[in-house]
Structure to design on (276 residues):
């Protein structure tokens, strides 16, 4: 099933007009109405025929219908705007009575594992104001997901995929790459959205690693990253002083700076903290 079926649904602009879905800034609403782009995002996730997709913030349903048209087994959406829920229940639920459900709720308060059976995947054009806490929550429980396909503002996507010795490298790069293979898929120009946001956007895929790149506890990784990057210009012997770690014992020069360390280096420091 492809765009033929999408074309039988009312155009998104008509849905927006009929249900008076004027975008609300406080809900991070920038709608993507271009069916070529929404289909492209849906397709980056590969075969969805055995997967339940959980979508955060379906809005008027552009990406939602592309994911359904791409063949997702089921799609469970969570949305905080009742106007959008009414619109989706009016036009999309009847087209996919067995495959589509939309729930009212705050994505920050969901137990995503309880929303759908495995195999499950998160796909979302994220509300940018809560994108980072949502990502951290999913990473913390990453084995519950087959993968994540997420759109961020480009600056955040760059931090997620950044390599050591670059300005964008930091806590988000390390926590993401420690647990997942991350792939920058493509950028989307601000003008493709209604209304256009002030920033460019990028789609990122997260493929969970069977095991983290190196063993360590989540809490210790977070603590070492936060402490090291809290003073990213300082040498580690200075910035990590409060944690009382023996940096040289794990083969790192005391004069090194946070951004020079690999993910494995951070895990080695985190293990030392775990053992304290
Ligand atoms: N998926 C739609 C699209 O691509 O056109 C809309 C994307 S828009 C960037 C973000 C969506 O997230 C909006 O529909 C907004 O109402 C919803 N949203 C914002 N905060 C939310 C929250 N805390 N929980 C669930 N949905 C939220």
């Amino acid at each position: 099933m492809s765009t033929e079926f999408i074309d039988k649904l009312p155009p998104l602009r008509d849905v927006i007009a009929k249900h008076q879905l004027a975008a609300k800034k406080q809900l991070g609403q920038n709608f993507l109405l271009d069916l070529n782009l929404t289909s492209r995002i849906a397709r980056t996730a590969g075969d969805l025929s055995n997967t339940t997709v959980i979508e955060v913030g379906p809005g008027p349903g552009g990406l939602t219908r592309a994911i359904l048209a791409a063949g997702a087994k089921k799609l469970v959406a969570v949305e905080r705007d009742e106007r959008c829920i009414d619109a989706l229940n009016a036009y999309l639920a009847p087209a996919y009575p067995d495959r589509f459900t939309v729930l009212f709720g705050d994505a920050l308060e969901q137990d995503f594992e309880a929303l759908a059976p495995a195999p499950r995947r998160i796909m979302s054009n994220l509300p940018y104001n809560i994108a980072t806490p949502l990502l951290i929550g999913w990473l913390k429980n990453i084995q519950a997901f087959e993968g994540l396909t997420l759109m961020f503002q480009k600056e955040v996507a760059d931090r997620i995929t950044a390599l050591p010795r670059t300005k964008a490298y930091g806590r988000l790069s390390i926590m993401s790459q420690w647990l997942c293979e991350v792939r920058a898929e493509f950028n989307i120009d601000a003008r493709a959205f209604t209304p256009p946001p002030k920033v460019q956007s990028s789609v990122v895929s997260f493929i969970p690693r069977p095991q983290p790149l190196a063993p360590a506890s989540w809490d210790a990784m977070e603590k070492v990253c936060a402490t090291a990057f809290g003073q990213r210009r300082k040498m580690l012997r200075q910035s990590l002083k409060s944690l009382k770690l023996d940096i040289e014992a794990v083969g790192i020069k005391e004069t090194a700076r946070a951004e020079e360390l690999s993910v494995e280096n951070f895990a080695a420091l985190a293990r030392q903290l775990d053992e304290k």
Summary: The chain has two domains: 4-208, 218-275.
